[in-house]
Design brief:
The protein has 443 residues and is of the alpha/beta class. It contains 14 helices and 15 strands.
């Protein structure tokens, strides 16, 4: 077969266009640092910041574009890129060169391809963008912090509890090293959300008693299996459909909505129960993930979040968040509060939140102000993972049970000829989680 590490593959690895923490989780082991903090910790406004992009799909390329658009704060340049697939890297590089010209300084010597490529790219930069499929995020974040680099990482930051614990440990070390960390939950940088949630925190609707959130849509892309692909390459090219890479769409997409509710509550859930399955998107190319999830999350004050996400065409679609309180209610995503403290933000003139989150991160680097979004990113990732655990098992699961789970979804070996954790049967279908059966595999 064609070596997937070369630059002439025909298919692509596309990255979708890719609080409070328990002491037990943080104690899950602070990683040992072998590098001292250095020049990358702080950059004055006239210092040039060197950027490395790890994961060159659509979202990674978009994040690199936004990072390069912070040049009005001070000089920036993209100096290194890494991806599992050379064709994705080259396509991204061409597009970024067309948009940013001489701000892109990537050469043949600073293009790195393969599973270990991230280490070399990180070593050349001051700021690292982590945008591979999320299963790799904990390891890449840990390495970036070990090397003393500022980080922007896409959400979710992990797909299982061991990964969340690794991120929390690295986040603690990042704070000790004065490294700045941004997470791609861009609603935290969206003016309408900021103003609406500030009012909710100030008591605009009284005590919040119930919440709802949705990511219901038709689903995302599939990519046909190509002749000669190993199973590892096939799954990497179709990362959205495998738990070890994606976490299921409750983690990869619906995290945005669950994160908004965590933000409103200034907390994470303490337990959850739910149901889900595969009813429509059941073909071989849909891998092992569900096409619908419903989860009821409980918070420590007894309030409940009713959460839905769906990948089924032809149904009611919604990407939204709502809450009800003792003095009113709110359509959070529409920036509307109803009741005695009514409010509406029209959103006109608001800056693109995808750009704003990079502006804020780079401003923190240049002004040396505290900036670390890794903890709430980890807690929201863990909340969505908790939801998946519940739908896959059919059980009620506490936060402490979930975050202390030892179920590690990652392969033992990362190699193009190695077997991923899940393999198809003779007909090409993958085993699907069945609630009530073999639940120890999932929690």
């Amino acid at each position: 077969m064609n070596n997937p590490k070369t630059n002439n593959q025909t298919s692509s690895l596309n990255r979708r266009g890719f609080m409070k923490t328990s002491s037990a989780a943080i104690a899950g082991g602070a990683i040992a640092s072998t590098l001292p903090t250095g020049k990358g910790v702080f950059a004055a406004s006239d210092d040039k910041l060197k950027i490395a992009l790890i994961g060159c799909g659509g979202r990674g390329s978009g994040a690199a574009n936004q990072a390069l658009n912070t040049a009005d704060q001070g000089p920036v340049e993209l100096v290194a890129m890494a991806d599992a697939f050379g064709d994705r890297l080259d396509s991204s590089l061409r597009n970024l060169e067309a948009q940013h010209g001489d701000k892109v300084k990537v050469t043949e010597e600073t293009k790195f391809v393969g599973f270990e490529a991230y280490k070399k790219a990180i070593s050349l930069a001051d700021v690292v963008i982590l945008a591979t499929p999320p299963g790799f995020r904990p390891t890449h974040f840990e390495e970036a912090v070990r090397q003393g680099k500022h980080v922007f990482m896409e959400k979710p930051v992990a797909v299982d509890a061991p990964g969340v614990r690794k991120v929390l440990a690295a986040a603690k070390e990042a704070k000790e090293k004065n490294l700045k960390v941004g997470v791609g939950l861009q609603r935290h940088h969206q003016q309408g959300y900021i103003e609406t949630i500030k009012r909710l925190h100030d008591g605009a609707i009284g005590d919040i008693t119930s919440m709802r959130c949705y990511w219901n849509g038709a689903g995302v892309w599939t990519r046909p299996r190509q002749p000669g692909q190993t199973e590892m390459e096939y799954q990497m090219r179709n990362w959205y459909y495998f738990v070890w890479l994606c976490g299921d769409h409750i983690d990869e997409q619906h995290i945005h909505n669950i994160d908004v509710i965590n933000w409103v509550k200034d907390a994470h859930p303490v337990s959850a129960q739910g149901m889900g399955g595969r009813q429509v998107r059941t073909s071989k190319e849909h891998g092992e993930i569900y096409d619908h999830h419903f989860v009821e999350f409980e918070y420590s004050d007894g309030s409940r979040l009713y959460s839905q996400c769906r990948h089924i065409p032809g149904c009611w679609n919604s990407v939204s968040e709502y809450c009800t309180g003792t003095k009113g209610d709110a359509d959070i995503n529409r920036y509307i509060i109803r009741g005695e403290n009514s409010f509406r933000h029209n959103g006109r003139g608001d800056k693109n939140p995808y750009q704003q989150e990079h502006d804020d991160l780079f401003a923190a680097i240049r002004n040396n102000t505290p900036y670390n979004e890794a903890e709430y990113g980890a807690n929201s990732s863990m909340s969505s993972i908790l939801g998946r655990m519940c739908t896959y098992t059919g059980k009620m699961i506490s936060w402490d049970e979930a975050i202390n789970s030892e179920v590690n979804t990652m392969p033992e070996v990362l190699d193009w000829d190695a077997n991923p954790p899940t393999l198809p049967n003779e007909e090409g279908f993958y085993p699907i989680a069945m609630p009530g059966i073999q639940t120890e595999k999932f929690v």
